[in-house]
Write a structure and sequence with these properties.
Blueprint lengths: L1 H9 L5 E2 L1 H9 L10 E6 H10 L8 E3 L12 E5 L2 E4 L10 E11 L3 H21 L7 H14 L4 H12 L9 E3 L7 H4 L1 E2 H4 L3 E5 L2 E5 L3 H9 L16 E4 L2
Helix pairs in contact: 2-9, 4-6
Amino acid sequence: MSEFHNFCITHNIKYYMIGGTLLGAVRHKGFIPWDDDIDVGMLRQDYEKFLALSSKFSKNYIISNYKTNKHANFPLTRIYVPGTYIKTNEPKKFNHALFLDVFPIDNVPNSYSLAKKHANKIRFYKKLLHYKGYIQSKNKIKNSFRKIVRVFLAPIRYNCIIAKMDRIFQMFANEDTACVCSMASQYSYEKQTMKREIYGEPILLPFDNYYFYAPQEPIKYLTQLYGEYQKLPSIEKRRPTQDVYLVD
C-alpha cells in the first residue's frame, strides 16, 4: 500500500481508501484486526491513467485485470504480492496470491429509471460471474442448478463477460452526473451510489504507521455503507474470511 501510495503521488493519480480499509482507518487507525486485504478506489479518469502507467509500477508485484489476464475473474484491477498464498476452492489457473484491490468509480445517471436499469444490467453480469465461479452452497438443489448453468457458460471466457461489464460501468462516462458508484463492489449498486462530493478532494488519514488518502467526507461514506460503522461485529464474526500463507 505504501508503494502504491507513493506511485500515485509521483504520477498525480488520485485514489481513496474505500470499504473495509477506510473503515479500518477511521475506526482502528489502521487495519481492522481481522481484515485480510486492502481496498482502494479511483474515479474512472484516474483509474485509466493508473492502468496506462502500470508498467512503471514496482516489479516486485503483479498487476492483473481482464485486459492483461484471460483468467481474471474480477471486474477491477488487482495488485498481487508474490510469495503469498490464499487458500481457496478456485482452480490453479487463478492467481492465489494476496492482493490489493483497485476499484473503478463510475458515473451514475441522474435519472432514477436509468440508474435502476443500469443497476439491473450490472447485477445480471455479476450473476453470470457468480454462476461461472466455484462458490459452493450448502443447498444441494442450488449446487445442482449452478453446475448446469456452469456447463452452458463454460465456452465463455471470464474476460469476455468482464469486458462487457466494464463497458456497462462506463455507459454514462461522458455525462455530468451528481453521483458516482464503485460498481464492481460486493455491496449493492444502490448502497454504493454516493454524491460526488463525498469522494471530493482526497484527504490524508492515519493508517498504522502511515498516512493514506481517503474520501473528503469519510464519515458520510461510512455511514451510508455501514450505518453504525463504529459498532463492532459480534466476536464470532471477528475473524479473517481467508487463510493467507507465506510460501518459499
